[in-house]
Amino acid sequence: MENRPMVTIAVAVYNVESFLPKGFDSILAQTYTDFEVVVIDDGSTDNTLAMCQRIAETDSRIRVLHFPHRGVGPVRNSLIENARGKYLYFYDIDDYIEPDTLADNVAAMEDGDNDVVFFGFYVEQKATGVCDGVSLPDKTMGTNEEFKQFYCDELVKSAYGCGYLWSKFYRYEFVRDLYAAGVHFENIEMHEDELFNLKLFRHISRCRSLSKKYYHYVIYPKGNTTTRYREKGYENSIILYNSRMELYREWIKDREDLLVDFRQLLLIAVSGSVMIYDYYSQANMGLVKSYRQVKRVLGLPEVRECAQNCRIELSGTHKSAFNRMMDNAFYENKPLQFLFARWIRDQYRIVKKLRKGR
How many CB atoms lie under 10 A from the CB of residue 31? Predict the structure, then answer.
């Protein structure tokens, strides 16, 4: 391929104009310079497209494409189709990366012809100023069986999950060949990244993990991809849970401790939706509609099965509210109507605070 760059940085953007300057500055500050940036605007209604085009005029390595709004899954499929690099890196423009991210990950990729390189990341909570993160061991895995052990022992059990695209470097041919075989991003509102990775994981032959944290995952009070309201967040969490269970049945098989992990992850997702998304001002939900939505979700067979087979460990008010719901609904068999009336009454101050803060 003529003038092929070493790395394609793939960026999907949609109504993120306020994050573009810092996001692009982080890319252009990389010490490793043999890369292209492919940006696809997903039909933004603000100044995102115009700003990306102006930035692209200042650096020939940046290509900007524009499509009518389709959703992040189809956009990422288009990013795969338009990438030219030997390696592929998905980057969220509302975050930022360390200056040596590309240099170190290219070196790790070249050391053994790896399919994927995994690395750690920081998590920055803008509302509270708290910063923590995830570190991985320095490790080289030469077979899929070795990677499976790493997935079970490290990735599933790491804080903040393991499904993100931006904490991984991919060999482009590895992704391209699987894409040609039908491994695509699904067109759903959330979790499309982990669903994609779950399909790839079964095919990894050789990979590497790095202990250094390179990525800064920034959680803002509102406005970025993490804090947007998702109307189908519940349904997407169920889809992800079923995909994890399929992975367990077809690939993992002999690690029963992961069944507990997968069940807890679904309950955490449902709990987060109950406490946050159903009272998020963008949802325009009153208490009655919220109650009906939560009642419906807790009646889903996957949620009932998880709650009946494991308990969840959370902290503070979240823990007391969640465990009260689950205890009454699934262990004492009390009517859901009474359960949520009492829960909403007990959590009224939190609901008011959440609405006021949004």
Answer: 11
